[in-house]
Amino acid sequence: MISKKMNKLVENSSIIRAMFEEGKRLSYIYGEENVFDFSLGNPNVQPPENIKKTIIDILSEESPNLVHGYMNNSGYEDVRNNIAKYINKNNELKLTANNIIMTCGAAGGLNIILKSLLNPDDEVITFAPFFGEYANYVDNFYGKLVIVKSQAETFQPDIQALEEGINEKTKAIIINSPNNPTGVVYSEKSIKDIAKVLEKKEREYGTSIFLISDEPYREIVYDDIEVPFILKMYKNSFIGYSYSKSLSLPGERIGYIAVNSEMDNFEDIIASLNVANRILGFVNAPSLFQRVVGRTLGEEVDVNIYKKNRDLLYNHLINLGFQCIKPEGAFYLFPKTLIEDDKKFAQIAKKYNILLVPGTAFGWPGYCRIAYCIGYDKIEKSLEAFTKLAEECRSI
Amino acid sequence: MISKKMNKLVENSSIIRAMFEEGKRLSYIYGEENVFDFSLGNPNVQPPENIKKTIIDILSEESPNLVHGYMNNSGYEDVRNNIAKYINKNNELKLTANNIIMTCGAAGGLNIILKSLLNPDDEVITFAPFFGEYANYVDNFYGKLVIVKSQAETFQPDIQALEEGINEKTKAIIINSPNNPTGVVYSEKSIKDIAKVLEKKEREYGTSIFLISDEPYREIVYDDIEVPFILKMYKNSFIGYSYSKSLSLPGERIGYIAVNSEMDNFEDIIASLNVANRILGFVNAPSLFQRVVGRTLGEEVDVNIYKKNRDLLYNHLINLGFQCIKPEGAFYLFPKTLIEDDKKFAQIAKKYNILLVPGTAFGWPGYCRIAYCIGYDKIEKSLEAFTKLAEECRSI
């Protein structure tokens, strides 16, 4: 009855739902405080204090028909202008409102980019481990997601694998840094190497190959790490940004796309993003929150809360003998599972009331994702459960 | 460079943009107060006073991680429950939260319904004159929009045309009442006749044919007109609702889908809508405004403002000899143009600083759409311009 594409997805979603229901079942039996749900990337840190005040200021100072009304499908010009200036200040660029399209989060942004670029059977490359939604976003427009591997020791992109993955049908590459699920930040060298390969292949095939950088975690970084800014490093580049994590507003669906001024066919691409925003049904990014982010540029959640969580859990896992890269950003750990079968590992973890996601879901079996965007006290309490989990795994 | 589908749309959008720029040019030359822009369906009536208060209440009373956080892709359960109860009270139904999916306006709702239903080359029928976006929404999923005519005298659906338009590939019918562009409200008889034909054709072909009712104007009705409630009249029916017009919040992208409990494969359809909301990039309807509409059910803008506009302009046009159905809802007049060529008529209107949309844009040449959701004083001032327009047309 439902479409063939959706039929498969609904089957998968019922598995995820079953996991979610299992969490609720455990909470019901053992009490919510004794269940350690590391399965969801739902930020627990509060939005900055100023968000509430800014909303109230806007409602008092601006006309309701402006604040809640239609505007250009790309978003309010003054907001886009503010964002462009903010980016310029931090990156020595010369963007204007014309480079910015306000979107319903990064998910909305990625979809309108792909709608604008893809003809059926066009290929889009991403590096595993990867955020599983990319497969669905590409499939929405009848494209094909091609998955190439990262370097196993560092989770930096494997440049040779990228080069081998590109052919004349390759329309775009999606990268995600800071990365979900690994927490790794792509180095400047990695981005430059990607750019070099793409430029070479563009010349070889006489095509344009677009680099799409999905950056909802840009601000969630630790220890003074710098996230390289791709608009300075590759001509045909887009940034898909979201305020979901930097302002802890994931439900509000607010973000933007920044488009490189030097991009091939810049004017057509901008016009297409505009129309795609409209016809996919977004119409425009939610209006009040466009105005909110336009007034709160540079504000951020307290990243130290996540850092404390990371350090506590990371150190404990290392002491238990887990192999894990120390994440420089996002709020995920991606350790090797103590037994080879990651799905079985997740099953065993459940016995200790620990919920986590097998690496298989990210195209990288033998690992698991632990989302540490939960309360510090919860993590403290979970350490013993992880110890027991490690003991059981060692005894298998 | 951009995809083939988008290439065509970008060409069209540049024509619309040219019209928009023309309006700005006229405003620049003659002063904004002397340009009569009837081209956009952008509500000018203020949101109810209580919206602002409700937002502030929510920010004070509820936790920010709840108000701005992720929830189920279908939306907050308490909000969906409130909406279901509100619908039940007015329509003697037994909906629950399970029947309601919160969406990014009606545009988002229609897209996730079509994503859930359509395989490539499936057909969707609508009645001309029709909201042009339906063609794009259906095309997003490689479906084919089949346009059948309305009854020319009443703009009620032409049931025979519908019956002739249905074949074994027909997956859905989209109706829109109160209608954009005609302002007509479909009668109970019309809906019952549609239902009868669909039931007959379902039996004939052994298929399910879904009725999708796009209802952003449900509350914008005059003279105690009742808009029939399709969930009571046809089993395989969806309502796509939006608060854009009833609360004058079009920029906030907030609405819902109501799904008939008796629908074939109800559980799969609901699961699919849920997943489609996620993978098309909406993820969920904007969270704060979900909570706002959940607290303000039954609130409405002052429809009398639109009614006064309608009466003033309608009476004047009739006096000038225009043929026009008196609209019972929405905020559009759809008169026959005084010369046959509606595009030329719109060109001539521009000489008198009147901006309106040729009926051709709605698949109904020889007519034009006049959006009267602008200030009453602006309409008063425009009457003389309409008189001069009529004089020039009569002299051709």
Automatic annotation (TrEMBL), chains A, B:
All copies of domain Aminotransferase class I/classII large, residue ranges: 34-381
GO function terms (MF aspect): pyridoxal phosphate binding; transaminase activity
Record-listed E.C. numbers: 2.6.1.-
Domain of life, source organism: Bacteria
Pfam families, per the entry: Aminotran_1_2
UniProt cross-references to NCBIfam families, sorted A to Z: PRK06836.1 (NF005305)
The protein's name in its UniProt record: Aminotransferase
Source species: Clostridium vincentii
